[in-house]
Structures are given as structure tokens and as C-alpha cells.
Amino acid sequence: MNATEVNTDKLVTDLKRIVTDSEELLHDSKDAAGAKAQEMRARLHDAMESAKRACQRLEAKAVEGAKAADRTIREHPYQSIGVAFGLGLLIGVLVTRK
Q: Where are the domains of the chain?
């Protein structure tokens, strides 16, 4: 798993946690009365829906990116090995350099 996948997974996890926490807050605030509380609940609900959609889009993009990378590697295995070798060599040279 590369750094982009790790960051994407962390972002998706964080977004899901925010949505869950927001849903709990929305549920807990049902007893609050007043126009301001009503407005805040409506805004929170809209924000939650927006976050859910963003999370779904992000997950779909991450899956599509992984599929595209897999497809490219399967279509060009020798070039992929060459690129991986070259990057490994470059990183090795940079890490051991003083």
C-alpha cells in the first residue's frame, strides 16, 4: 500500500467518523427547542449529507485508481518491473548518499 492509498484510507476513515459523530449529535439534539436549534440541526443534516457524498466519491476514486494501476501493471508487466527497479535504485542511491 503506497502513501497515497494510506492517506486516502485515513481520509475516508476520518470522514466516516465525522459523519457518525454528526449523526449522534443530531440525534442527541432532538430535544433542544427553539428556532436557532432547528436551524442548526438543518445545517448539520445538510453538512452530513454533503460529507457522505464526498466520502462516497472519494472511495469510488480510490477504487478506480487502484483498478487502473492494477490494469496497467497487468498489461505492461516488464515495464512495471523496470520502473519499480529504477525507482528502488534511485531511492537507494538517495538514501545512502551523505
A: 3-96
